[in-house]
Task: structure prediction
Amino acid sequence: MSRRLVLAVVALLLIVAMVPTVYGQGGPVTVKLWMHVHPPRVPLDEELIAQFEAENPDIDVEYTTVPDQEWDTALATALAGGGGPDLFNQATFAIGDFYNQGILAPVDPVAAGYADQQAILDAYAFGESLLAGAMFDGVLYGLPTELSAYGCYANNDLFEAAGLDPVADFPKTWEEMREVAEKLTIRDESGALVQRGFDFIWSNSIFMLLIFNPMVQQLGGDMIDEVNLVAHIDTPEVRQVMSYWNDWVNTWKLGGPQYELTRNAFLSGNLAMDCDMGNWGVPQVVDAGINYTLHPQPRWANAVNNNAMANYAYFFMVNANAAPEVQAAAWKLAGFLTSEPQRYFDVAGLFQSKKDFVESEYFQQNEIMPTFLADMGVSKYHPRIPAFFEVTDALMRGRDRIIVGGESMDVVLPEMEQEVNDILARAAGQ
Amino acid sequence: MTRLTPIATISPQPALSLRLAHWWADLRRHPQRILLVLLAIFVAAVFALPLYFMVSSSFKADQEVLASPVHWVPQDFQGLTNFQRAFDEIPLARYFFNSFLMAGVDVVVTVIFSALAGYGFAKFDFPGKRLCFLFVLSTIMVPFQILLVPLFIQIHSMGWDDTYAGLIIPGIMNAFGVFMMRQFAYAIPNELLDAARMDGASEVRIFWQIVFPLLSSASASLAVIIFLFSWNNFLWPLIVIKSEAITTVPVGITVFTQPHSAQPQWAVAMAVSTLATLPILVLFVFFQRYFIEGFVLSGLKG
Amino acid sequence: MFSALRSLGRGSSVQRRQVWGLIFVLPTVIFFIIFFLYPIVSGLLFSLTDFTLLRPPVWVGLQNYQDLLKDRLFLKSLSVTMGYVVGTTVPVWVLSLLAALLFYQRFPGREFTKTLFFTPVLPSLIVVAIVWRILMQPNGLLTQLTRPFTGLGEVNWLSRPDLSPISMIIINNWTTIPFYMLIWLAGLTGIPSELRDAALVDGANRVQSFLRVELPLLRPTAVFVAAISSINAFQAFTLQWAISPGRGGPIDVNTTMGLLIWKYGFQFYRMGDAAAVSVVLFAMILVVTVFQLGLSRGEQYSLE
Result:
């Protein structure tokens, strides 16, 4: 190889490296669309986008899939300074940050194919509560692509092996949960758990707001006041739930953070009850060959509120920094892509509570979806606060100090409250 | 200047039967060495075990990977099924292409520009040389961790978010390379360069036709180390990469480390890990001498 | 710079030739100005601002540093980092030197066992993390191997707050001991054998000759190993990110400063605080490096 060729290759490599992946300036309006990776949905997305482009020759769509795990970070950094996608499919967890930072554009009902905002709310079952995830001060900032809440899965075979009936004996209250779980737990001679009856999901801090806090809310408390950005953690309700979680691990020894993740344990047949998967879990459960039944979430015997676990969702949202004509085109595309709830449900298990879909015979005959929808309808969204992940991080730290580190709640709970209040105050001040 | 320590070169290996005979004779002469052999085998086994576990588990079924006690040999041999599943589930081919692109560009640019700069520092005398060299050298002491936030903001403001440029260019140069090449360029006899100049060769031509070829052994050492470094690089790609289209292998396989991912497929994770390590292993087997020299001179570890 | 060029251009042909040195060096220097000097300076400036990426930076002076002083997570990360640095330096120096002494001996099969021993250096840390996550399952291989000594059939290597940092250190040291072994070995190989033989003739045994002759001569190598291993230890990130429960847990016992920079910058969008932590980390590493280079009397990095 001659020296000149080497140089040429180097130059070429450099040029290739410099070419940004952003390309394709075609029609008058280009909508950059980011979706999180969910392989089953991709072919349907592509088909519908092609159809949309054919019907709207003046709009070009640039479709990018982003791996799920660092999605919130990816999006936040991409949107900073006015860059990033025009239309994106985003979970509600960080929506408080996005709203707070002024990145979200309100829904343009007319462009999306509705008369006005009320018409959108009316088009969805439980519209007021299920679209509340993208609602701030009465203004809607997104169209849902996937509404989700956790249901309880029972492994029928493990129930029957323990002499229990998965339907009749499934616990309705947290008090019953302890008894039933004990009956379904198998320990080896050293006391280590071979099979768990039930366990909480300990791995990710967001469950402090998706599962722990709803249990507090059932008792009438709430760790986070989303409107005034204040934390209420040193309360009797939090104490009751924290004691229950602590006893679960340290007194009753029914599970804990050291064991295999609940979802995986359930799928491998080592956990009899799992209450932390949405309807998206069904294909995995079926694939794993598990004979299951689905149940509503337990409530406390002395519950004040009838909520289940927290609702969360993915919404189409539009970048407020995009040009007005791009925003209109983006809402038009979002309206179009949310007009096929049944196909997305069939192909990818994504649930949108459009009334015409929910009221159809097809949906009503589904074995599990009405159970999910019933719990969703009575539940609230997780708090949509700025610094969401920082707050959940602090909550999990407090939980672990008590449950793993053995510190006293009298010490930890006030400190937790202070820490979360500091985080919220700083985030609100920005 | 302290000369850099020469590295023991590994002589070409004779045939196995000859070697075994030689070993046997050696042990007969020094029976106490049998203890050393046993100790070395033990130490090597302890350190090689986890990688053996990785490779063997890539041929197991998911549940067998977690079997306790450990199965050293797959009992339910899966053939290449796990590798097939890996390619089906994540766009692994694309990840590999991106990793090779990044490592390739890093290697070519680092080697050429390090040689150029090292030669410039070693054989020329220009105003500001000392300052320039001190400056380049001082960057060795700046850990990448420190640059992470401001560099990200810089790349971001340049519009290089989520592009090959943003992924590759900030890591395209390495001060160790310059330092190392400078040491080797010193050893080039001035007479050789002057003779070429007398013949009317241009300075660029002297570099390409005389200096660079003489630096080829050092270049090879630098190249394999930079390849390893770049191939295994994790932190910066983790920050810059957003879309799957430019995802590299180490970032792509984190899907298997996530505690909250869908059901972890341990066997697939082991297959992907094996594949991710394979290019380095192949390079190491063929270029061991350059690897070792590069490691020792640079102190860089992937 | 340009006036220097011009003055050179007027000089003799030998002087004119020196311009080429500048030209050869320039691309590298410019690169390091853009991608090292500029970010370092801007990082310093960012550490004096309140900056969330989503909004322009606001100047706050030393506020971020004052906040760090009472920041529970930051204070925790200081002690976590120090613990990790101690655990991944001193034992590594000793064990890697012992391994080097082993492979410095002559015995049959040395090259083969040395190559096997060296393999942990090759895979990416993220691959290492995945493999060890399986080996450190509560009833996994590590438990199996330690059972004869501990009697425990189930050990929570990664989720016990007291064990988890030690587990990270074990994994790290597994990948770095063979690496530093190689560096020691190169140092040992560079010692003329006549020196050792002379000591042996003087009646010293092998251990005495090592302590008297070889160890002092290994000083430059020791400084090199110490500097590189501690700089790497200060930056710990990947293992903690990949396999500690909740990215730095349990109860933050694995939240190193490196992980905290990522957490503040790229999870909490607190770029100003992340930059401030970076500056503190930089200062710490600088002190250690300068101290260690001082010990070496500039032997490794001599300029001329």
Summary: The domain at 89-298 of chain B is CATH 1.10.3720.10 (MetI-like fold).
